[in-house]
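Researcher: Go.
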Amino acid sequence: MALPVDHKANIIDGKLIAQTIRSEIAAEVSVLVEKYGKAPGLAVVIVGHRKDSQSYVNMKRKACAELGIRSIDIDLPEQVSEAELIAKVHELNEDPNVHGILVQLPLPKHINEEKVLTEISLEKDVDGFHPLNIGKLAMKGRDPLFLPCTPKGCIELLKRSGVTIKGKRAVVVGRSNIVGLPVSLLLLKEDATVTVVHSRTPDPQSIICEADIVIAAAGQAMMIKGSWIKPGAAVIDVGTNAVDDASRKSGYRLVGDVDFHEACKVAGWITPVPGGVGPMTVTMLLKNTLDGAKRVIGQ
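Model: Structure:
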């Protein structure tokens, strides 16, 4: 199908959609507080002082405050032992005022990430990364207690933008445990026909150009060209890559995995970077915390 020369994709405004969802969450939180005198509680455990982790955690804390969710902050030193970290997780598992536990990744090298994450109570796994939650996500007819935040945000962006998923061809670019794999499982649950393209896929362009829905999560700056996009397709760009830009004060700018400027001329819908998927990730974490609280408060 030929598109008009001046075609411009619908820009999916992640900030706006996230704000709408946050208003919905805030309303539900205030009902819980009025009815039961209890607010949802989110514990954020951060080990060491990575700048990117710190800024992400600060964003979460600010968002909690805005919505009336209690934020319990656990800052541990870089050299904390694995046993001490696990003991802290167990303590939070037992705390009735904590409805969600988030251990900020990556952890220092001397700590086994998988071991720590498996210790988080299934009922409080708001990141959705517990092997049992991912296992249920992979199985037909089973529902995990929590869905991973970024994949859940991607699906929410499509649905709230009026994009049909059922029966469509979806291509996920990237197979990470955090985005690629779980988002492909979620798309399957939504009845899409799913293909996963990854670093060992020969000729990814030939597969991507047939997709009605593209979820780009490869971590490669502007890897997906406008010419790879099927006219009218929905493109969700999860990539956040810093590229040098002398004209910026910081010396760099953020770009996605998709060539946004070119893709806009072809796609039906597209998310910008920044301002697309990013705001949704934290919002879905807050939604998961609310859901965890609702299962417990008032029972």
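Model: The mean pLDDT is 95.
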